[in-house]
Amino acid sequence: MEDTSPKLVDPVCGMEVQPDSAAASAEFEGNTYYFCSQQCADTFNSDPTRYVVA
After folding, report:
1. Tens digit of each residue's pLDDT (9 = 90 or more) over 31-53
2. Which residue intervals of the chain are DSSP H helices?
3. Which residues have a Cβ under 8 Å from the Cβ of 47 and sit 6 or more positions away?
4. What pLDDT shows up at residue 31?
5. In the beta sheet, which residues pair with residue 26?
6. Which domain holds residue 23?
7. Is the pTM of this model over 0.70?
């Protein structure tokens, strides 16, 4: 059976992340970002504009 759940990319490290099993998430400018680890989330939160493509 194929996994059809959406996969997103951790904006810090580029790893594929499934929202329902992500280690962490963060909100920025009305969007939710998902992360493979709390460390990636902390890195993102320290400077979100570095990781969000305008």
Report:
1. 999 999 999 999 999 999 999 98
2. 38-46
3. none
4. 96
5. 33
6. 8-50
7. yes
Q: Say which residue the tokens 């902390």 belong to.
A: 42
| Residue 26 near residue 32, CB atoms below 8 Å | yes
**Residue bearing tokens 């400018």:** 29
* CA–CA gap between residue 16 and residue 49 (Å, rounded): 20
| 1 domain-assigned | no
Residue 2 falls within a domain, yes or no? Answer: no
**Domain count within the chain:** 1
Paired residues of 28 in beta bridges: 31
Provide the pLDDT confidence category of residue 27 given band limits of 50, 70 and 90.
very high
